[in-house]
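Methods — Computational structure assignment.
A single polypeptide chain was analysed. Its primary sequence is given first, followed by the predicted tertiary structure written as structure tokens.
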Amino acid sequence: MEEQITQTKTLTLQPVTEADYVEVVDLINAATRSFVGHNIVTLNEFATDLNTLDLNPAKDTCVVRVTDGEPLAYADFWAGAEPHVRMFGFVRIHPQHKGEGVGTAITGWLESRAAQELTTAPDGLRVTLGMRAYGVQSNAQAFLDSCGYKHVRSNYRMTIELDGSIPEPVFPAGIVLHTIQPDEADLRRALQAEQEAFLDHYGAIPEPFETYFQRRKNMLLHDETVDLSACFMALDGEQVAGADFNAISLADDQETGWVGSLSVRRPWRKQGLGLALLRNAFREMHQRGRKRVGLFVDAESLTGALGLYQLAGMHVQYETRYFEKELQPGKDIANIG
């Protein structure tokens, strides 16, 4: 356990334990609701994530409290895809405890954890630590800027209301839609196509497929909101042209479906396949009684995804901003366009 003394109180920083889960989930959702009006995680999802993602809760999570008091903030750290040169921090501070030195304490913990990982980073490669803030979080953005972080990218959360007038998806000639089965073979085919397509996304880092596959498979098979019967591959003969993985709810919101990922490989782009997969997902969610569908998109998507989603009738609900701090200068192996 670590202690930090601020101007007003003594804070304790320690890894999350199972006994903390309920309070931490309540904190995460309260902080998120204060900015965007909805929850982002359930208790089961939080527990599952800690046990299936590439992190060690004992060293990669932090709960900030006043001694023996309620949690004031939570953070977790992910070293990113190998060779761990693009690291990420997730932070939530309880809305009733802003401006009390909590942000400084939790950011200091994240940077200390990143510094530990930095000792194993390959020489000559650029290493960064990134964090996100909602577009309306002006104070958080100013704080990150004062700590040396720079706003380098934005994402939009987009939604569409499902009113029954969704056009029939029109697939390119020769494309056959296939429901992804919960078996090794289907998941490998779909995720191999996804990884290849996503290498064209901002920030993507090449990594061995087996590493990518195991991480994504664990996430998909253990996420209670993902139903593979609502996930699809677009096949051109024996080749996977594209795929989408969808969730049938979003946290505790049973009225919203979610497009977790939609990928089209290069040879099949600009032929209407992405639009067809998206409209198929909309119709699938409508048939399941969902009132809307949402997703996140890079605001400056290198593959033109933003324009595709607008064409499909989706609208921007809010913005999230990605802030990055350089920890080690060098060659950037991430795709930055």
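Note: The chain has two domains: 2-121, 159-319.
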